[in-house]
Amino acid sequence: MRNTDRKMWFFLGSGDIILINFAFVLAYFLKFDTIELKDNYIFLLLVFNFSWILVSSMFSLYTFSRVDHLEHIVSNTIKAGVTHALIITALLFSIKASEQFSRQLILYTYIIDFIVVILWRFIALAFIKRYRVSGYNYRRVVLVGTGSVSHQMYKFFQSSQSHGFKLLSVFYYQEAKKHYDFSSVDSKDISELEEFCIDNKIDEIYYAMGMNEDNIIHNLLSFSDKNMIRLRILPDFSSFLFRKIHVNFYGSLPVITLRDEPLQDEMNRMYKRIFDILFSLSVILFVFPIVFPIIALIIKLTSKGPVFFKQMRSGVNNKDFICYKFRSMALNKDADELQATRNDMRITMIGKFIRKTNIDEFPQFFNVLFGDMSIVGPRPHMIKHTDEYSKLIEDYMVRQLVKPGITGAAQVYGFRGETKTTEDMKDRVEYDIWYLENWSLLLDIKLIFLTSWNMIKGQKEAF
After folding, report:
1. Which of 109, 125, 293, 462 has its CA at 20 to 30 Å from residue 388's CA atom?
2. Rounded (5°) CA angle 188-194-195
3. Which domains does the chain have, with CATH numbers?
4. CB 217 within 8 A of CB 190
Protein backbone atom coordinates (compact mmCIF):
# COMPACT_ATOMS: atom_id res chain seq x y z
CA MET A 1 0.00 0.00 0.00
CA ARG A 2 1.47 3.42 -0.98
CA ASN A 3 2.04 5.98 1.76
CA THR A 4 -0.72 8.30 0.50
CA ASP A 5 -3.18 5.40 0.39
CA ARG A 6 -2.26 4.53 3.99
CA LYS A 7 -3.06 8.11 4.93
CA MET A 8 -6.49 7.83 3.28
CA TRP A 9 -7.09 4.53 5.09
CA PHE A 10 -6.08 6.07 8.41
CA PHE A 11 -8.10 9.24 7.70
CA LEU A 12 -11.37 7.37 7.06
CA GLY A 13 -10.84 4.65 9.67
CA SER A 14 -9.92 7.07 12.45
CA GLY A 15 -12.97 9.17 11.66
CA ASP A 16 -15.21 6.10 11.93
CA ILE A 17 -13.75 5.05 15.29
CA ILE A 18 -14.05 8.58 16.73
CA LEU A 19 -17.68 8.80 15.60
CA ILE A 20 -18.57 5.35 16.95
CA ASN A 21 -17.24 6.41 20.37
CA PHE A 22 -19.02 9.76 20.09
CA ALA A 23 -22.33 8.04 19.26
CA PHE A 24 -21.95 5.64 22.18
CA VAL A 25 -21.11 8.36 24.73
CA LEU A 26 -23.90 10.63 23.45
CA ALA A 27 -26.39 7.75 23.68
CA TYR A 28 -25.14 7.05 27.22
CA PHE A 29 -25.67 10.71 28.15
CA LEU A 30 -29.20 10.72 26.68
CA LYS A 31 -30.06 7.58 28.67
CA PHE A 32 -28.30 8.25 32.01
CA ASP A 33 -27.69 12.02 31.92
CA THR A 34 -23.94 11.57 32.48
CA ILE A 35 -20.84 10.78 30.42
CA GLU A 36 -19.07 8.86 33.22
CA LEU A 37 -19.32 5.31 31.88
CA LYS A 38 -19.69 2.37 34.25
CA ASP A 39 -17.18 -0.47 33.92
CA ASN A 40 -19.57 -2.79 32.07
CA TYR A 41 -20.31 -0.06 29.50
CA ILE A 42 -16.60 0.64 29.04
CA PHE A 43 -16.27 -3.06 28.21
CA LEU A 44 -19.19 -2.79 25.74
CA LEU A 45 -17.60 0.26 24.10
CA LEU A 46 -14.34 -1.66 23.61
CA VAL A 47 -16.33 -4.48 22.02
CA PHE A 48 -18.00 -1.94 19.72
CA ASN A 49 -14.59 -0.65 18.60
CA PHE A 50 -12.94 -4.03 18.03
CA SER A 51 -16.05 -5.35 16.23
CA TRP A 52 -16.05 -2.38 13.89
CA ILE A 53 -12.37 -2.90 13.04
CA LEU A 54 -13.19 -6.55 12.22
CA VAL A 55 -16.26 -5.68 10.14
CA SER A 56 -14.53 -2.85 8.27
CA SER A 57 -11.82 -5.33 7.29
CA MET A 58 -14.42 -7.89 6.16
CA PHE A 59 -16.11 -5.34 3.90
CA SER A 60 -12.86 -3.62 2.78
CA LEU A 61 -14.37 -0.25 3.71
CA TYR A 62 -11.14 1.66 3.33
CA THR A 63 -9.78 0.11 0.14
CA PHE A 64 -12.36 1.33 -2.34
CA SER A 65 -11.52 2.04 -5.97
CA ARG A 66 -10.74 5.58 -7.07
CA VAL A 67 -13.66 5.37 -9.48
CA ASP A 68 -16.19 3.88 -7.04
CA HIS A 69 -19.61 5.54 -7.05
CA LEU A 70 -20.71 7.23 -3.84
CA GLU A 71 -23.83 5.00 -3.76
CA HIS A 72 -21.66 1.87 -3.67
CA ILE A 73 -19.41 3.23 -0.91
CA VAL A 74 -22.34 4.29 1.30
CA SER A 75 -24.22 1.04 0.58
CA ASN A 76 -21.16 -0.98 1.64
CA THR A 77 -20.92 1.10 4.83
CA ILE A 78 -24.59 0.40 5.65
CA LYS A 79 -24.08 -3.35 5.13
CA ALA A 80 -21.08 -3.19 7.47
CA GLY A 81 -23.20 -1.36 10.06
CA VAL A 82 -25.95 -4.00 9.92
CA THR A 83 -23.37 -6.78 10.25
CA HIS A 84 -21.83 -4.97 13.22
CA ALA A 85 -25.22 -4.76 14.93
CA LEU A 86 -25.81 -8.48 14.38
CA ILE A 87 -22.39 -9.34 15.82
CA ILE A 88 -22.99 -7.22 18.94
CA THR A 89 -26.46 -8.73 19.44
CA ALA A 90 -25.21 -12.31 19.01
CA LEU A 91 -22.28 -11.68 21.34
CA LEU A 92 -24.42 -10.22 24.14
CA PHE A 93 -26.86 -13.12 23.95
CA SER A 94 -24.12 -15.75 23.76
CA ILE A 95 -22.46 -14.50 26.98
CA LYS A 96 -25.89 -13.95 28.56
CA ALA A 97 -25.13 -10.27 29.11
CA SER A 98 -28.03 -8.73 27.19
CA GLU A 99 -29.88 -7.92 30.42
CA GLN A 100 -26.90 -6.01 31.80
CA PHE A 101 -27.12 -3.32 29.13
CA SER A 102 -29.82 -0.87 28.15
CA ARG A 103 -31.45 -1.83 24.85
CA GLN A 104 -32.52 1.79 24.50
CA LEU A 105 -28.91 2.94 24.76
CA ILE A 106 -27.81 0.44 22.10
CA LEU A 107 -30.64 1.57 19.82
CA TYR A 108 -29.72 5.25 20.34
CA THR A 109 -26.08 4.41 19.61
CA TYR A 110 -26.89 2.83 16.25
CA ILE A 111 -29.29 5.60 15.21
CA ILE A 112 -26.73 8.31 16.04
CA ASP A 113 -23.88 6.26 14.58
CA PHE A 114 -25.78 5.65 11.33
CA ILE A 115 -26.40 9.38 10.87
CA VAL A 116 -22.90 10.64 11.73
CA VAL A 117 -20.95 7.91 9.90
CA ILE A 118 -22.94 8.34 6.67
CA LEU A 119 -22.54 12.12 6.97
CA TRP A 120 -18.82 11.54 7.57
CA ARG A 121 -18.64 9.50 4.34
CA PHE A 122 -20.06 12.42 2.34
CA ILE A 123 -17.73 14.94 3.98
CA ALA A 124 -14.65 12.69 3.81
CA LEU A 125 -15.14 11.79 0.14
CA ALA A 126 -15.69 15.45 -0.75
CA PHE A 127 -12.50 16.30 1.14
CA ILE A 128 -10.54 13.51 -0.61
CA LYS A 129 -11.68 14.76 -4.02
CA ARG A 130 -10.69 18.31 -3.07
CA TYR A 131 -7.37 16.99 -1.77
CA ARG A 132 -6.67 15.26 -5.08
CA VAL A 133 -7.68 18.30 -7.14
CA SER A 134 -5.13 20.26 -5.06
CA GLY A 135 -2.40 17.93 -6.33
CA TYR A 136 -2.14 15.25 -3.64
CA ASN A 137 -2.91 11.50 -3.41
CA TYR A 138 -2.58 10.94 -7.15
CA ARG A 139 -1.16 8.11 -9.24
CA ARG A 140 1.40 8.96 -11.92
CA VAL A 141 0.35 7.07 -15.07
CA VAL A 142 1.24 6.68 -18.74
CA LEU A 143 -0.70 5.33 -21.72
CA VAL A 144 0.72 2.95 -24.31
CA GLY A 145 -1.20 3.11 -27.59
CA THR A 146 -2.96 5.81 -29.58
CA GLY A 147 -6.10 4.05 -30.83
CA SER A 148 -9.75 4.55 -29.87
CA VAL A 149 -9.52 2.65 -26.55
CA SER A 150 -6.46 4.62 -25.49
CA HIS A 151 -8.20 7.87 -26.44
CA GLN A 152 -11.24 6.99 -24.32
CA MET A 153 -8.91 6.37 -21.37
CA TYR A 154 -7.11 9.62 -22.12
CA LYS A 155 -10.42 11.52 -21.99
CA PHE A 156 -11.26 9.85 -18.68
CA PHE A 157 -7.93 10.91 -17.17
CA GLN A 158 -8.47 14.47 -18.42
CA SER A 159 -12.13 14.66 -17.33
CA SER A 160 -11.53 15.17 -13.62
CA GLN A 161 -8.60 15.44 -11.25
CA SER A 162 -10.77 14.18 -8.38
CA HIS A 163 -10.07 10.54 -9.40
CA GLY A 164 -6.42 11.09 -8.55
CA PHE A 165 -4.69 10.11 -11.80
CA LYS A 166 -1.97 12.26 -13.37
CA LEU A 167 -1.33 11.30 -17.00
CA LEU A 168 2.25 12.24 -17.87
CA SER A 169 2.67 10.89 -21.40
CA VAL A 170 1.23 8.80 -24.24
CA PHE A 171 3.52 6.32 -26.03
CA TYR A 172 3.11 5.19 -29.62
CA TYR A 173 4.72 2.40 -31.66
CA GLN A 174 6.53 2.99 -34.98
CA GLU A 175 4.84 6.35 -35.63
CA ALA A 176 1.40 4.68 -35.62
CA LYS A 177 -0.37 7.63 -34.02
CA LYS A 178 -2.33 10.87 -34.48
CA HIS A 179 -5.72 9.44 -35.41
CA TYR A 180 -6.92 11.04 -32.17
CA ASP A 181 -6.03 14.18 -30.27
CA PHE A 182 -3.67 13.69 -27.32
CA SER A 183 -2.39 17.25 -27.46
CA SER A 184 -2.54 18.06 -23.73
CA VAL A 185 0.31 15.61 -22.93
CA ASP A 186 3.57 14.69 -24.63
CA SER A 187 3.59 11.81 -27.11
CA LYS A 188 6.74 9.67 -27.25
CA ASP A 189 8.00 6.61 -29.06
CA ILE A 190 7.65 3.38 -27.07
CA SER A 191 11.44 2.98 -27.09
CA GLU A 192 11.57 5.81 -24.52
CA LEU A 193 9.01 4.23 -22.21
CA GLU A 194 11.26 2.41 -19.72
CA GLU A 195 13.61 5.34 -19.12
CA PHE A 196 10.66 7.73 -18.80
CA CYS A 197 8.88 5.50 -16.26
CA ILE A 198 11.98 5.22 -14.06
CA ASP A 199 12.85 8.94 -14.27
CA ASN A 200 9.29 10.04 -13.49
CA LYS A 201 8.52 7.39 -10.87
CA ILE A 202 5.48 6.11 -12.74
CA ASP A 203 2.95 4.13 -10.65
CA GLU A 204 0.84 2.54 -13.40
CA ILE A 205 1.17 1.76 -17.12
CA TYR A 206 -2.06 1.48 -19.14
CA TYR A 207 -1.56 -0.67 -22.24
CA ALA A 208 -4.06 -0.25 -25.09
CA MET A 209 -2.36 -1.52 -28.26
CA GLY A 210 -4.11 -4.83 -28.82
CA MET A 211 -3.26 -8.30 -27.56
CA ASN A 212 -1.47 -9.40 -30.76
CA GLU A 213 1.73 -7.51 -29.83
CA ASP A 214 3.17 -10.40 -27.82
CA ASN A 215 6.74 -9.08 -27.57
CA ILE A 216 5.66 -5.66 -26.34
CA ILE A 217 3.32 -7.10 -23.69
CA HIS A 218 5.95 -9.59 -22.49
CA ASN A 219 8.63 -6.87 -22.23
CA LEU A 220 6.25 -4.49 -20.46
CA LEU A 221 5.22 -7.18 -17.97
CA SER A 222 8.84 -8.03 -17.20
CA PHE A 223 9.82 -4.35 -16.89
CA SER A 224 6.85 -3.42 -14.67
CA ASP A 225 7.42 -6.40 -12.34
CA LYS A 226 11.10 -5.57 -11.91
CA ASN A 227 10.37 -1.92 -11.17
CA MET A 228 7.26 -2.40 -9.02
CA ILE A 229 5.03 -0.63 -11.53
CA ARG A 230 1.50 -1.91 -12.01
CA LEU A 231 0.58 -2.85 -15.57
CA ARG A 232 -3.08 -2.38 -16.55
CA ILE A 233 -4.41 -3.90 -19.78
CA LEU A 234 -7.16 -2.05 -21.67
CA PRO A 235 -8.83 -4.67 -23.92
CA ASP A 236 -10.71 -3.47 -26.97
CA PHE A 237 -14.40 -4.16 -26.31
CA SER A 238 -15.62 -1.69 -28.94
CA SER A 239 -17.87 -4.41 -30.35
CA PHE A 240 -19.73 -4.24 -27.04
CA LEU A 241 -19.77 -0.45 -26.72
CA PHE A 242 -21.58 0.96 -23.67
CA ARG A 243 -21.75 -2.44 -21.98
CA LYS A 244 -20.45 -3.00 -18.48
CA ILE A 245 -17.87 -5.77 -18.89
CA HIS A 246 -17.24 -8.07 -15.92
CA VAL A 247 -14.57 -10.77 -15.65
CA ASN A 248 -14.91 -13.89 -13.51
CA PHE A 249 -12.37 -16.71 -13.13
CA TYR A 250 -13.50 -20.31 -13.46
CA GLY A 251 -10.39 -21.89 -11.97
CA SER A 252 -7.60 -20.12 -13.87
CA LEU A 253 -9.75 -19.44 -16.95
CA PRO A 254 -11.06 -15.86 -17.34
CA VAL A 255 -14.72 -15.66 -18.39
CA ILE A 256 -16.07 -12.35 -19.63
CA THR A 257 -19.64 -11.38 -18.78
CA LEU A 258 -20.95 -8.61 -20.99
CA ARG A 259 -23.43 -7.37 -18.40
CA ASP A 260 -22.95 -7.46 -14.64
CA GLU A 261 -26.31 -7.44 -12.82
CA PRO A 262 -26.27 -6.91 -9.04
CA LEU A 263 -29.83 -8.29 -8.83
CA GLN A 264 -28.65 -11.68 -10.01
CA ASP A 265 -27.39 -12.07 -6.46
CA GLU A 266 -30.02 -13.77 -4.28
CA MET A 267 -29.21 -11.59 -1.26
CA ASN A 268 -29.59 -8.39 -3.27
CA ARG A 269 -32.99 -9.57 -4.55
CA MET A 270 -34.00 -10.32 -0.96
CA TYR A 271 -32.92 -6.84 0.22
CA LYS A 272 -34.85 -5.22 -2.61
CA ARG A 273 -37.96 -7.32 -1.95
CA ILE A 274 -37.94 -6.56 1.79
CA PHE A 275 -37.56 -2.85 1.02
CA ASP A 276 -40.43 -3.05 -1.52
CA ILE A 277 -42.75 -4.77 0.96
CA LEU A 278 -42.00 -2.35 3.81
CA PHE A 279 -42.28 0.74 1.61
CA SER A 280 -45.48 -0.34 -0.18
CA LEU A 281 -47.11 -1.41 3.09
CA SER A 282 -46.30 1.99 4.61
CA VAL A 283 -47.96 3.79 1.68
CA ILE A 284 -50.98 1.44 1.63
CA LEU A 285 -51.57 1.71 5.39
CA PHE A 286 -50.84 5.39 5.98
CA VAL A 287 -51.22 7.30 2.69
CA PHE A 288 -53.67 5.32 0.55
CA PRO A 289 -56.59 5.55 3.05
CA ILE A 290 -56.35 9.34 2.83
CA VAL A 291 -55.84 9.64 -0.93
CA PHE A 292 -58.24 6.91 -2.12
CA PRO A 293 -61.61 8.29 -0.88
CA ILE A 294 -60.89 11.77 -2.23
CA ILE A 295 -59.61 10.68 -5.66
CA ALA A 296 -62.26 7.96 -6.04
CA LEU A 297 -65.07 10.40 -5.28
CA ILE A 298 -63.80 13.03 -7.74
CA ILE A 299 -63.30 10.42 -10.49
CA LYS A 300 -66.87 9.16 -10.00
CA LEU A 301 -68.34 12.68 -9.97
CA THR A 302 -66.48 13.94 -13.06
CA SER A 303 -66.67 11.01 -15.51
CA LYS A 304 -68.40 7.71 -16.18
CA GLY A 305 -66.59 4.48 -15.51
CA PRO A 306 -64.68 2.65 -12.78
CA VAL A 307 -62.30 4.27 -10.30
CA PHE A 308 -59.44 1.97 -11.26
CA PHE A 309 -57.92 1.46 -14.69
CA LYS A 310 -56.58 -2.06 -15.29
CA GLN A 311 -54.29 -2.96 -18.16
CA MET A 312 -52.05 -5.87 -19.11
CA ARG A 313 -48.41 -4.81 -19.04
CA SER A 314 -45.07 -6.54 -19.68
CA GLY A 315 -43.35 -7.66 -16.49
CA VAL A 316 -40.16 -9.40 -15.44
CA ASN A 317 -39.00 -12.07 -17.92
CA ASN A 318 -41.67 -10.64 -20.23
CA LYS A 319 -44.50 -12.22 -18.23
CA ASP A 320 -47.75 -10.25 -18.49
CA PHE A 321 -49.48 -8.92 -15.39
CA ILE A 322 -52.44 -6.66 -14.60
CA CYS A 323 -51.22 -3.16 -13.77
CA TYR A 324 -53.50 -0.93 -11.66
CA LYS A 325 -53.88 2.85 -11.85
CA PHE A 326 -56.45 5.46 -10.91
CA ARG A 327 -58.45 6.07 -14.09
CA SER A 328 -57.35 9.36 -15.63
CA MET A 329 -59.08 9.08 -19.03
CA ALA A 330 -62.62 8.82 -20.27
CA LEU A 331 -63.51 5.28 -21.35
CA ASN A 332 -62.16 4.73 -24.87
CA LYS A 333 -61.42 1.86 -27.25
CA ASP A 334 -57.79 3.00 -27.85
CA ALA A 335 -56.60 2.62 -24.25
CA ASP A 336 -54.55 -0.50 -25.07
CA GLU A 337 -53.17 0.91 -28.31
CA LEU A 338 -52.31 4.61 -27.95
CA GLN A 339 -50.06 6.40 -25.46
CA ALA A 340 -51.27 9.55 -23.79
CA THR A 341 -50.14 12.68 -25.65
CA ARG A 342 -49.94 16.34 -24.69
CA ASN A 343 -53.44 17.89 -24.71
CA ASP A 344 -54.94 14.41 -25.17
CA MET A 345 -58.72 14.85 -25.35
CA ARG A 346 -59.24 11.53 -23.56
CA ILE A 347 -57.73 12.83 -20.31
CA THR A 348 -60.31 14.04 -17.79
CA MET A 349 -60.03 17.17 -15.64
CA ILE A 350 -58.99 15.23 -12.54
CA GLY A 351 -56.87 13.04 -14.81
CA LYS A 352 -54.63 15.99 -15.73
CA PHE A 353 -53.89 16.63 -12.08
CA ILE A 354 -53.30 13.04 -10.95
CA ARG A 355 -51.12 12.25 -13.98
CA LYS A 356 -48.97 15.35 -13.50
CA THR A 357 -48.48 14.58 -9.79
CA ASN A 358 -48.09 10.78 -10.28
CA ILE A 359 -51.07 10.15 -7.98
CA ASP A 360 -52.58 7.95 -10.71
CA GLU A 361 -49.76 5.44 -10.01
CA PHE A 362 -50.67 4.96 -6.31
CA PRO A 363 -52.65 1.70 -6.86
CA GLN A 364 -49.44 0.17 -8.19
CA PHE A 365 -48.21 -0.12 -4.61
CA PHE A 366 -50.59 -3.11 -4.50
CA ASN A 367 -48.79 -4.48 -7.58
CA VAL A 368 -45.56 -4.15 -5.60
CA LEU A 369 -47.05 -5.94 -2.60
CA PHE A 370 -48.33 -8.75 -4.86
CA GLY A 371 -44.81 -9.14 -6.31
CA ASP A 372 -45.53 -8.09 -9.91
CA MET A 373 -43.67 -4.79 -9.60
CA SER A 374 -40.97 -3.07 -7.58
CA ILE A 375 -40.89 0.48 -6.19
CA VAL A 376 -38.02 1.30 -8.57
CA GLY A 377 -37.38 -0.28 -11.94
CA PRO A 378 -38.09 0.18 -15.66
CA ARG A 379 -41.64 1.42 -16.22
CA PRO A 380 -43.96 -1.37 -17.46
CA HIS A 381 -45.03 -0.87 -21.06
CA MET A 382 -48.17 -1.91 -22.88
CA ILE A 383 -47.96 -5.37 -24.49
CA LYS A 384 -48.31 -3.79 -27.94
CA HIS A 385 -45.38 -1.44 -27.37
CA THR A 386 -43.18 -4.23 -26.02
CA ASP A 387 -43.83 -6.24 -29.18
CA GLU A 388 -43.15 -3.25 -31.43
CA TYR A 389 -40.05 -1.81 -29.79
CA SER A 390 -38.39 -5.19 -29.18
CA LYS A 391 -38.15 -5.48 -32.98
CA LEU A 392 -36.83 -1.93 -33.44
CA ILE A 393 -34.37 -1.57 -30.53
CA GLU A 394 -31.63 -4.19 -30.16
CA ASP A 395 -31.30 -4.09 -26.35
CA TYR A 396 -34.94 -3.42 -25.57
CA MET A 397 -35.72 -6.78 -23.95
CA VAL A 398 -32.83 -6.41 -21.47
CA ARG A 399 -35.10 -4.13 -19.41
CA GLN A 400 -37.40 -7.12 -18.87
CA LEU A 401 -34.72 -8.90 -16.80
CA VAL A 402 -35.89 -7.02 -13.68
CA LYS A 403 -39.29 -6.23 -12.22
CA PRO A 404 -40.90 -3.07 -13.59
CA GLY A 405 -41.16 -0.15 -11.20
CA ILE A 406 -43.53 2.61 -10.13
CA THR A 407 -40.66 4.96 -10.86
CA GLY A 408 -37.29 4.50 -12.52
CA ALA A 409 -34.08 6.15 -13.66
CA ALA A 410 -35.51 7.06 -17.08
CA GLN A 411 -38.51 8.83 -15.52
CA VAL A 412 -36.40 10.68 -12.96
CA TYR A 413 -33.94 11.97 -15.55
CA GLY A 414 -36.52 13.31 -18.00
CA PHE A 415 -37.59 10.37 -20.18
CA ARG A 416 -41.18 9.90 -19.05
CA GLY A 417 -44.47 10.33 -20.85
CA GLU A 418 -44.96 10.04 -24.59
CA THR A 419 -42.25 8.49 -26.78
CA LYS A 420 -42.70 10.22 -30.14
CA THR A 421 -39.79 8.52 -31.90
CA THR A 422 -37.77 5.34 -31.69
CA GLU A 423 -34.83 7.48 -30.52
CA ASP A 424 -36.89 8.61 -27.51
CA MET A 425 -37.45 5.00 -26.56
CA LYS A 426 -33.75 4.18 -27.09
CA ASP A 427 -32.83 6.90 -24.60
CA ARG A 428 -35.32 5.47 -22.10
CA VAL A 429 -33.98 1.94 -22.59
CA GLU A 430 -30.38 3.12 -22.05
CA TYR A 431 -31.34 4.50 -18.64
CA ASP A 432 -33.23 1.30 -17.79
CA ILE A 433 -30.19 -0.83 -18.63
CA TRP A 434 -27.92 1.53 -16.69
CA TYR A 435 -30.16 1.02 -13.66
CA LEU A 436 -30.09 -2.76 -14.08
CA GLU A 437 -26.27 -2.77 -14.21
CA ASN A 438 -25.73 -0.33 -11.33
CA TRP A 439 -28.49 -1.28 -8.87
CA SER A 440 -28.01 -0.72 -5.17
CA LEU A 441 -30.49 -0.15 -2.36
CA LEU A 442 -29.06 3.33 -1.96
CA LEU A 443 -29.68 4.04 -5.66
CA ASP A 444 -33.34 3.02 -5.18
CA ILE A 445 -33.65 5.44 -2.25
CA LYS A 446 -31.99 8.19 -4.29
CA LEU A 447 -34.40 7.68 -7.22
CA ILE A 448 -37.41 7.67 -4.86
CA PHE A 449 -36.21 10.94 -3.35
CA LEU A 450 -35.71 12.49 -6.82
CA THR A 451 -39.17 11.26 -7.88
CA SER A 452 -40.71 12.98 -4.85
CA TRP A 453 -38.81 16.15 -5.67
CA ASN A 454 -40.00 16.04 -9.29
CA MET A 455 -43.60 15.64 -8.06
CA ILE A 456 -43.21 18.83 -6.02
CA LYS A 457 -41.49 20.98 -8.66
CA GLY A 458 -43.23 19.37 -11.66
CA GLN A 459 -41.83 17.93 -14.90
CA LYS A 460 -42.62 19.28 -18.35
CA GLU A 461 -42.80 15.69 -19.64
CA ALA A 462 -45.65 14.91 -17.19
CA PHE A 463 -49.10 15.17 -18.76
Report:
1. 462
2. 80
3. 3-133 (no CATH), 139-236 (3.40.50.720), 266-457 (no CATH)
4. no
